[in-house]
Write a structure and sequence with these properties.
Chain lengths: 501, 292
């Protein structure tokens, strides 16, 4: 029957239109239909819905309980979107180039620099002066340096979780006890300890996923990427300790004191070796869920397992140093296409109002957190109800207090908190800040930092594994200079002269 | 009298078997490993103790991976996408192939040439992106269906099949006064079940597996199809600490066994459906045809 085929066609068309109506749809139409032009002098009676974009994370931001918390606190409805996990930079560029609509975006520093270059985002000086008093109060001036280019502030910097040491070395205390050894504190002691472990046991003495091992580099005066001397900045590759470090590491590698798989090692494989009990020491941190995944495994595989974190090693001059991370990982920007820049600033501002910020970040005292002996502790499980992923929804933090509040969040995971606390205790004696932490991204930085970094890593591995001799070091340094290192150094020095101290 | 030929035949067969067994293992072993990882305890996985069999058998990871909102939502999106997409694609492919299979169609060569030209030459990713954006399809399910709605390859398969059908059947129907519409839906299609099933299977697998378009056009997490969800979960876990914008990101990464469980969970529906569809290829072809 002709009717049958027509019926089928009609069904398909109906199904199609129903689905088109139900699926995402074009939110821009919804947006432009709402509140009147935000540039009008009177505040719109209805707060506009804001469209937000930030980096990928493993949850649905529109359905997460934190979204409801933000709405409750600010009164703004937000349509949250995420960049893809892979090729986020390209996707962002595509969106900007094709004129996609967003009100607020949380971008990485390289992405931020790209957006400034493309002239795609608004300068915020006036908006912050008029509508962002809390923004100015919450964020220290030196942090704003990162997003200030040519005297104009192009974004609100998200400072991260405080000044923290990230990497250390975990040591099997049970192995040390068994062999009657003490925890090494100097390079020579490390060498003897590793040698003894190699001779007396069949464990891999030291396992790492990275050729640059912070605890060891400390003994050669290497910690940060940039070093200041006589008012000039120079890169880590130009420090006298670098060839010495590489030589030392090459020696360790040759004698089998460092895992022979170092050149190809990834975090997964290094984890496996330590977790299965096959290694005595490992480059370890409190992030990446390392303690949570590795420690229970070692405990199961090794009877009498005890661990201790090794402090950064002292060099010939008796000094040790280790990088204290601080700095801006994310910047909140307003694209020029946004129709509601004033509302966006108000939205950001509300979240940074000091008491509101505390409430968003760690909740109410006695309900989500408790304050004991000057420290913040989470009350589980209430703390995790709405605030597990709240970090993604923040544009910036109260730079003065957040490092303390944040410890409550860190304490959610007791295993990583234990490692964290141990690692931080070296901050006072050995902690070192990178002088470039708060520099804004410059053209040479964007062009060269990543490629030079990769180049360095490759060279380190070649020398350590014995594929190249340390005598080639000077030649390598000049190739580093030519590959953009010279330009980068010049730019860093220029920024250093202009930076607010 | 054993001739040299027999011995060569055995050798050839033996080599064939050996080769195929090796290929089969090469595809099966990684799969078994992931399956074992998804069923093993996290401690065993991190210690690298899992090879082909689960160590510390537990079903919790699976439950966690499957019975969670994001997975189920993405699953639903993929189902809708595959169902709707396959239906529309097959319908349009058949509607396009039928006239092209008639030799008396005016301009037939030109149409065929155009279709084939499009199959070989591609405008590029940026024009595609701009087109989808200008049509207002961004962040909708249609951006995953419309851009590739007919595959020329499938079109040609169906067209060739239609051409092979005996003319007599359709001529008989025409004499009885059937319209083209009726001929297509009531005579040709019922006789084409094998090719329809084949082409539907190709489209279905294509839609089910698609993630690239979703990666480009979908930014709303509620609309992500299953493959994209899985892809992002795995890429997320491979980021080094230095690449993350906030260390908290690293504290919520899915565990190894979670990822393996998700991979298995995503593969299983296709594994179940495929053998069932395969029987359509084996089923007989035309039943009852031109007599005399």
């Amino acid at each position: 029957m002709k009717r049958k085929s027509l019926l089928l066609l009609a069904c398909i068309l109906m199904l199609a239109s129903v689905l088109a109506a139900c699926s995402g749809g074009n939110k821009d139409a919804a947006n432009s239909g709402k509140a009147p032009d935000a540039k009008a002098t009177a505040t719109p009676a209805v707060k506009p819905e804001l469209k937000f974009l930030a980096a990928n994370a493993g949850f649905d931001p529109n359905k997460d309980p934190a979204a409801a918390l933000i709405e409750e606190v600010t009164g703004y409805k937000v349509n949250y979107n995420m960049l893809p996990a892979d090729k986020a930079d390209e996707k962002l560029n595509l969106e900007m180039a094709s004129g996609a609509y967003y009100d607020l975006m949380g971008v990485t520093k390289p992405q931020f620099a790209g957006l400034v270059n493309q002239n795609a985002i608004l300068p915020l000086n006036d908006l912050i002066d008029k509508f962002g008093p809390n923004i100015k109060k919450a964020i220290e001036t030196k942090v704003f340096n990162v997003t200030t280019i040519g005297g104009k502030i192009y974004g609100v910097p998200y400072m991260g979780n405080g000044e923290l040491i990230t990497w250390g070395t975990i040591v099997r205390q049970d192995v040390l006890d068994q062999l009657g050894l003490k925890m090494p504190t100097t390079l020579d002691e490390l060498y003897t300890t590793l040698k003894t472990i190699k001779e007396k046991t069949d464990l891999i003495p030291f396992v790492s996923d990275n050729a640059f091992i912070e605890s060891i580099a400390s003994g050669f005066g290497l910690s940060t990427q940039w070093y200041e001397s006589n008012g000039q900045l120079s890169s880590i590759i130009k420090q006298p300790g670098m060839p010495q470090y590489l030589e030392f590491m090459a020696k360790l590698y040759k004698e089998g004191l460092i895992d022979k798989d170092l050149p190809v090692s990834k975090l997964e494989t290094a984890k496996e070796k330590f977790a299965s009990g096959k290694a005595a020491m490992m480059r370890f941190g409190w992030g990446s869920s390392l303690p949570e995944t590795v420690l229970p495994a070692v405990e199961k595989n090794v009877p009498n397992f005890k661990y201790k974190m090794m402090s950064p090693l002292k060099g010939a001059n008796g000094k040790s140093e280790i990088l204290v991370d601080r700095g801006v990982g994310r910047v909140a920007v307003i694209p020029k296409v946004s129709k509601y820049p004033e509302d966006v600033i108000k939205f950001i501002d509300k979240k940074l109002e000091l008491d509101t910020f505390k409430y968003i970040g760690i909740g109410k005292e006695g309900v989500e957190y408790k304050f004991e002996n000057g420290q913040y502790y989470p009350i589980l499980p209430k703390f995790n109800e709405q605030r597990t992923n709240i970090w993604w929804y923040l544009d910036a933090v109260d730079t003065k207090n957040w490092p303390d509040y944040w410890l409550a969040r860190n304490r959610k995971n007791p295993l990583s908190n234990a490692v964290f606390t141990e690692i931080q205790k070296d901050k006072a004696t050995a902690g070192k800040f990178d002088p470039t932490s708060y520099f804004p991204p410059g053209p040479a930085g964007i062009k060269y930092v990543q490629s030079l970094d990769a180049m360095n890593k490759e060279y380190y591995i070649k020398v350590i594994a014995g594929a190249e001799n340390i005598s080639s070091f000077d030649k390598y340094v000049s190739s580093w200079d030519n590959a953009g290192g010279k330009e980068l150094t010049a730019e860093m020095n220029e920024l250093y002269r202009n930076a607010t101290k | 009298m054993k001739s040299g030929i027999d011995y060569k035949q055995y050798l050839f067969n033996g080599l064939n078997y050996a080769l195929f067994i090796v290929f089969g293992l090469a595809t099966l072993v990684p799969f078994l490993h992931i399956l074992a990882e998804s069923l093993s305890s996290q401690v065993a996985v991190v210690s690298g103790k899992v090879s082909l069999l689960p160590v510390g058998l537990q079903w919790d990871t699976f439950k966690l991976a499957v019975i969670n909102n994001r997975f189920l939502n993405s699953f639903k999106i993929s189902l809708v996408l595959t169902g709707l997409g396959t239906l529309i694609s097959v319908l349009l492919t058949v509607l396009a192939a039928y006239p092209l299979s008639k030799p008396h169609l005016k301009g037939r060569k030109l149409f065929l040439l155009l279709y084939i030209f499009v199959m070989v030459f591609h405008g590029g990713m940026i024009p595609d992106y701009l087109l989808v954006k200008e049509l207002g399809l961004m962040n909708t399910i249609w951006s995953l269906i419309l851009p590739g709605i007919i595959w020329t390859f499938n079109l040609l398969i169906v067209k060739n099949y239609f051409e092979e059908l005996p003319e007599g059947i359709e001529e008989a129907a025409k004499i009885d006064g059937a319209s083209y519409n009726r001929m297509l839906f009531q005579i040709v299609l019922p006789l084409s079940t094998p090719v329809i099933a084949t082409v539907a299977l190709f489209y279905a697998v294509g839609y089910w597996e698609s993630y690239f378009n979703a990666m480009l056009y979908i930014s709303s997490p509620g609309l992500k199809p299953l493959q994209l969800y899985l892809y992002e979960m795995i890429t997320q876990a491979q980021k080094t600490l230095e690449e993350m914008t906030n260390v908290e990101e690293s504290m919520n990464i899915s565990t190894d066994s979670m990822r393996s469980a998700s991979v298995i969970a995503v593969t299983i529906p296709m594994l179940i459906v495929y053998p069932y569809l395969q029987k359509y290829f084996v089923k007989g072809i035309i039943v009852g045809s031109v007599k005399g």
